[in-house]
Amino acid sequence: MDLEGAGALVTGGSSGIGRAVVERLHGAGASVAVVDRHIGPPAAAAGPAGVSIVCDISEEAAVVDAVRRAHDALGGLTIAVLGAGVGGFGALVDLEAAEWDRVVGTNLRGTFLCLREVARVMVEGGRGGAIVAVTSISGFLADRNMSHYAVSKAGVAELVRVAARELGPFGITVNAVAPGTTDTPLFASTSRLPGYRARVAERTALGGVGTADAVAEAIVSVLGLSWVTGQVLAADGGVSLWSPIDPVESL
Question: Annotated catalytic residue: which of 21, 36, 103, 149?
Fold first, then answer.
């Protein structure tokens, strides 16, 4: 994909899937604004024409400022990848409201705030655009002890569908990519679960655990689809195809 001269914003762009997206966009010629809570030396992947902005996406004023700064620094935005998010784990009956608010506040509220602001500058710019939000296959599965995470990601998927209808008349596509188990800092927390990684790898149609770059490839590919909007693509190696009632499981 040739993105020479395009202005792109990537939230959660300093590590994991976001960083891999930044590297691919930069390689395609885009100028990239990396937006993240923690910006370190790795953010240099934004490239010589890029910019790094510290921002907690759950804070409205911070998001408004970050998107405007990115827009001004890059001379406009026509691409946005909304990948910032947090994880969480806890049984529903034990879950504190503050923990619910932390996860939903970042993953759903934060994605809404970022989508709203990038949509505003894209509409204002009049050149159309492409937005991809990162959701999760947990948004359409029923993973125990992850209610707040699953609900937040299901909400992102529906937000994308509604946004696609509203922004289509302005030439803006809005889609989502739903990773499965992916080898990122967020996934590293599962190391405390004995045998978890091996079970996931065994139940993944393509085998193993996904990489950040493999998911980034899917995200950047979706950005280039001009006649696709309001869709959620599972980039999970087929792990969401596994069924506990598959008769072959008993053989």
Answer: 149
Each domain of the chain, given as residue ranges in start order, spans 7-234
- Res 49: pLDDT: 62
Question: What's the pLDDT score for residue 238?
Answer: 95
Does the domain at residues 7-234 carry the CATH identifier 3.40.50.720? yes
Identified catalytic residue from 6, 153, 180, 182: 153
On the 0-12 / 13-18 / 19+ scale of CB atoms within 10 A, 242 is middle
Catalytic residue flag (residue 153): yes
pTM: 0.93
Backbone angles phi and psi of 245, in degrees to 5: -105, 10
* pLDDT bracket for residue 131 (50, 70, 90): very high
Q: Is 196 a catalytic residue?
A: no
